[in-house]
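User: Can you recover a sequence for this backbone? Please restate the input before giving your answer.

Assistant: Of course. Working from this structure:
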């Protein structure tokens, strides 16, 4: 059927099905689908060509070696080595995201925090916040909202850690939280390279990669894998991470949520003192080390909230929780806007 160009006229809604199209115009409209098919085929051919670049370079090297018998061997070998290295580098670049674990979020344009009262655009995952409202945080550069299967993160490109991590727990979710741990840490590719922590930053630093949303609280295998994103980590003193914090804070919160009659909202985060820029850092990426860690727990049914507040130090021992009002005073963040929970 020949392609027919139609003169533009008043805007009209096209029929929603082939049969409706036939009834309306007497024939199908191939011009609607041909451009789309052409674009898809072109994109597929482009991806195939990119994958063949390293292979083509190596083939070209081999042909050049056969056709240059009169050229001294050493320059040819040197050129061949350089070309092979280039081919390997191109191959790595083409597959730069293949090391992200299965189930982890794939690269996409990250959500950028709004500059208004709300901390970020969490429209894709409001379920992790009481009344669907995220904390009110003073906007700073490079704050980005990230949604995962079982938690949400407001990430800071300044500290290269989270500002906070939000979760929702209840009896049903806690019962499902018995996933086999993998310890497959990874840098979240949704963040710009200059704003995210890497495995190299933690290597030999003397600090643990401390979870903010614990792997032991993830209700599915995919969520457990996602919890090993370095966006969900802070540099944490090893004995504190593996001892006091795990037992008196993380385990205690999980047990409480497992007995609760409704939803329990949990917000965990680091505190940098006297400031992010003046805090200790680790690794080539200068990931900042928090002075304190907090975990806020809000029981929606009982309308009560409290918070754990720990010095990030191996000598830290368990202590009594602080009130919600005291946490707001110390951090300057309204974690539960409009809720006004009792202590």
């Amino acid at each position: 059927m020949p392609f027919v160009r139609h003169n533009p006229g008043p805007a009209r809604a096209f029929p929603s099905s082939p049969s409706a199209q036939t009834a309306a115009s007497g024939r199908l409209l191939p011009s609607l689908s041909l451009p789309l098919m052409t674009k898809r085929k072109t994109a597929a051919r482009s991806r195939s060509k990119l994958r063949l670049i390293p292979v083509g370079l190596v083939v070209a090297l081999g042909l050049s070696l056969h056709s240059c018998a009169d050229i001294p061997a050493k320059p040819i070998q040197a050129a061949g080595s350089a070309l092979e290295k280039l081919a390997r580098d191109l191959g790595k670049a083409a597959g730069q995201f293949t090391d992200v674990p299965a189930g982890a979020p794939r690269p996409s344009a990250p959500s950028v925090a709004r500059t208004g009262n709300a901390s970020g655009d969490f429209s894709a995952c409001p379920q992790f916040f009481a009344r669907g409202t995220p904390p009110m945080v003073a906007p700073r550069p490079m704050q980005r909202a990230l949604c995962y299967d079982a938690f949400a993160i407001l990430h800071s490109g300044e500290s290269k850690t989270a500002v906070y991590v939000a979760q929702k727990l209840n009896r049903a979710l806690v019962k499902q939280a018995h996933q086999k741990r993998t310890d497959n840490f990874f840098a979240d590719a949704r963040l710009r390279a200059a704003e995210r922590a890497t495995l190299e930053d933690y290597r030999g630093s003397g600090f643990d990669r401390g979870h903010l949303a614990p792997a032991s609280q993830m209700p599915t295998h995919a969520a457990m894998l996602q919890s090993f994103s370095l966006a969900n980590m802070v540099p944490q003193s090893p004995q504190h991470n593996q001892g006091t914090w795990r037992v008196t804070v993380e385990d205690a919160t999980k047990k409480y949520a497992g007995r609760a009659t409704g939803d329990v909202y949990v917000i965990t985060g680091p505190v940098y003192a006297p400031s992010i820029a003046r805090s200790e850092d680790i690794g080539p990426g200068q990931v900042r080390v928090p002075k304190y860690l907090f975990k806020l727990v809000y029981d929606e049914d009982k309308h009560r909230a409290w918070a754990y507040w720990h010095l990030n130090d191996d000598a830290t021992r368990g202590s009594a929780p602080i009130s919600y009002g005291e946490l707001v005073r110390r951090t300057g963040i309204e974690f539960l806007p409009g809720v006004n929970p009792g202590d």
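That completes the design. Confidence is low (pLDDT under 50) at residues 1-44, 46-77, 90-98, 107-119.
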